[in-house]
Design brief:
By secondary structure, this protein is an alpha/beta fold. It folds into four domains: about 5-165, Resolvase, N-terminal catalytic domain (Rossmann fold, 3-Layer(aba) Sandwich); about 200-315, Putative Large Serine Recombinase, Chain B, Domain 2 (Hect, E3 ligase catalytic domain fold); about 330-385 and about 475-575, no CATH class; about 390-455. It is built from 18 helices and 20 strands. The chain has helices spanning about 20-35, 70-80, 95-100, 105-115, 135-170, 205-220, 225-235, 245-255, 300-315, 365-380, 385, 395-420, 425-455, 455-470, 475-490, 545, 555-565, 570-575, and strands spanning about 5-10, 40, 50, 90-95, 120-125, 125-130, 185, 190, 195, 200-205, 265, 280-285, 330, 340, 350, 365, 490-500, 505-510, 520-525, 540. The strands form six sheets. Strands 1, 2, 3, 4, 5 and 6 form a six-stranded mixed β-sheet that branches. Strands 13-17-18-19-20 form a five-stranded mixed β-sheet, sandwiched between helices.
């Protein structure tokens, strides 16, 4: 008795909620019941059924369904090739277009492959059986069915693309769909043919205020994980369908340009490992501005992107302490990192990381003395001391002009493809190259505007304000805010630790961002001992006042010369 198997498929995820699979199941089971000489083999597949969920039989974004490895139909073919599905077995499908909607050549290749494996292909609409010895008339009939299905899918595909193209063209004046971000709502939509159309996208003010608070925290240097913890502690409502806030949700919101009102059209679909569906979603067309309501200002958005970039640059394990200069400190002797070490009972210290590996000698310096000394000197600076030339060489207008030219080039190129769709395959590499170049220009322009949105003079003022508050309040929030501002202002701090056990010295070069502006300091403190329980306050001098050569501590040779000069420095003379 021949064994039967059933193959069913539907194209869209929304059809899973409908009648498609039930109908295909019932048709196949009815046919099997009418055939007492055929038995359903429930030992393979899903009880004898091989089902592809939400999988089109047509090409998707140029990627054809020739590789069946991830599909239920591919599983069936492999079973037939291995002999688990015996020759003479029957594969029952509702119609030929359930097997494939590809071109007749590809579709007939799939059918003949099944026939040559000894599988009898049975279609129920119309009811026909196709065997290895099928005559040319039967093969022509299934070829015609495949060709008709392919043509229908091609037409639907073109119409769908054209419809979405028309929607994207009108995106500046009306919403494309009823789907909006969780912090928005659709107002004034009207129901037409059981669907909502039109309307205006407006911000939910309560959720918009929550997002602005997240941005304020991020600007102050609070991490996405810490923001999520605070929101959960305050029982702030999470995004739609989420049970609680998490680091990923906060990060995605902080990075979303939708908050600036931008909508970026895409083509294709998101991938799904569960359904064996590849990622085909790609950006297309131009960004639509003012599609969504603006929730944050471009300046705040740029500042937060810079804060995120800095957190990525200064990635490290966060402990109980907020180290103000963490990630910026370098040992002038070899360029290695200088780190903070916090003991249980001892005072926190700075020490070279390479000392643990024996690469440099072990030297320490009190961290609180160092932090306070550098902050005290930053408090005395003026904006002109750290400000580089604003937009040197006019980079922003130059990049903006190049981006406009690239947008125009892309527009003309897409018009050419729209007029001659047959050229898409040959021109796709050029289109991808142009889109990549456009993305790179947009990123460079955004970076230039981000730098201009955070002038160092304003950052210096923020550090000076926070430094005054830290004298009385050393809370985590204030230290995070101070550290974030320090990272926006300072590019690096090279440290050369010296002196004796009782009188510690640190030569320091503070390099400011975006220019060659820097400051050189010598910090000295006297260690506490039994004879000196209350040592005098630390001393901070410029290199010139301390009699040190004005050399560059970033250069190891210059650092060696400064180290030799440190050996001749008298702690007593520094205090005079």
């Amino acid at each position: 008795m021949p064994l039967a198997y059933v193959y069913a498929r539907f194209s869209k995820d929304t059809q899973e909620k409908g009648d498609s699979i039930r109908r295909q199941r019932e048709l196949a089971l009815t046919w099997i019941r009418r055939r007492p000489d055929v038995q359903l083999d429930a030992s393979l597949g899903e009880g004898g059924f091989f089902i592809d969920h939400g999988l089109t039989g047509f090409a998707v974004s140029g990627e054809r369904r020739l590789n069946l490895d991830n599909y239920a139909l591919g599983d069936f073919i492999r079973l037939a090739e291995s002999g688990r599905v015996r020759p003479g077995s029957m594969l029952v499908v509702e119609s030929a277009d359930r097997l494939t909607r590809e071109s007749p050549a590809v579709g007939l290749h799939l059918v003949t492959k099944l026939l040559l494996l000894g599988v009898v292909v049975v279609t129920l609409a119309p009811e026909m059986e196709f065997r290895t010895d099928a005559d040319i008339g039967r093969l022509i009939s299934i070829g015609v069915s495949i060709d008709r299905a392919h043509d229908e899918s091609r037409v639907k595909n073109v119409r769908g693309k054209n419809a979405w193209g028309a929607k994207r063209a009108s995106a500046a004046t009306q919403p494309l769909t009823t789907l909006v971000p969780w912090w928005c709502k659709l107002a004034g939509a009207r129901r037409v043919a059981n669907r909502l159309v039109g309307g205006t996208i407006k911000a939910d003010e309560a959720k918009a205020a929550l997002i602005r608070r997240m941005f304020d925290l991020a600007k102050a240097g609070v991490s996405a994980r810490a923001i999520a913890k605070r929101l959960n502690a305050e029982k702030a409502p999470p995004p739609a369908r989420a049970k609680a806030w998490n680091e990923s949700a906060v990060f995605n919101i902080l990075k979303s340009r939708k908050l600036l009102g931008e909508y970026r059209p895409h083509t294709g679909r998101t991938g799904s490992s569960r359904k064996g569906r590849p990622e085909t979603r790609k950006p297309t067309g131009e960004v639509v501005h003012d599609y969504y309501p603006k929730v944050v200002s471009p300046e705040d958005f740029a500042l937060v992107q810079e804060a995120i970039r800095q957190r990525t640059t200064f990635r490290g394990r966060r402990g109980r302490h907020v180290n103000l200069f963490a990630g910026l400190l370098y040992d002038a002797r070899d360029g290695g990192k200088v780190i903070y070490r916090h003991g249980t009972n001892a005072r926190s210290k700075l020490l070279p990381a390479n000392a643990n590996a024996g690469l440099v000698s072990f030297r320490t310096f009190q961290a609180d003395v160092f932090d306070a000394a550098i902050l005290s000197r930053l408090a005395e600076l003026k904006a002109a001391d750290v400000m580089p030339e604003a937009d040197p060489g006019g980079e922003i207008p130059r990049l903006a002009a190049r981006l406009a030219e690239k947008d125009e080039e892309l527009r003309e190129f897409r018009e050419q493809i729209d007029e001659e769709p047959r050229l898409l395959k040959s021109l796709r590499p050029t289109l991808v190259r142009l889109e990549t170049e456009r993305e790179e220009l947009a990123e460079r322009l955004a970076a230039a505007r981000r730098d201009a949105a955070s002038p160092l003079g304003d950052t210096l003022g923020e550090i000076q304000d926070v430094a005054k508050l830290l004298a009385d309040d050393s809370s985590e929030d204030l230290r995070l805010r101070c550290r974030s501002a320090i990272r926006r202002l300072i590019e690096s701090v090279h440290v050369l630790i010296g002196g004796s056990r009782m009188a510690r010295l640190a030569a320091v070069r503070v390099q400011f961002r975006g220019s060659e502006a820097h400051r050189d300091y010598l910090v000295m403190y006297l260690a506490r001992n039994r004879q000196r329980m209350n040592p005098p306050p630390p001393v901070v001098r410029s290199f010139a006042d301390a009699g040190l050569p004005g050399l560059d501590l970033r250069n190891p040779a210059d650092a060696a010369a400064v180290e030799a000069a440190l050996a001749r420095v008298s702690p007593t003379s520094l205090r005079e």
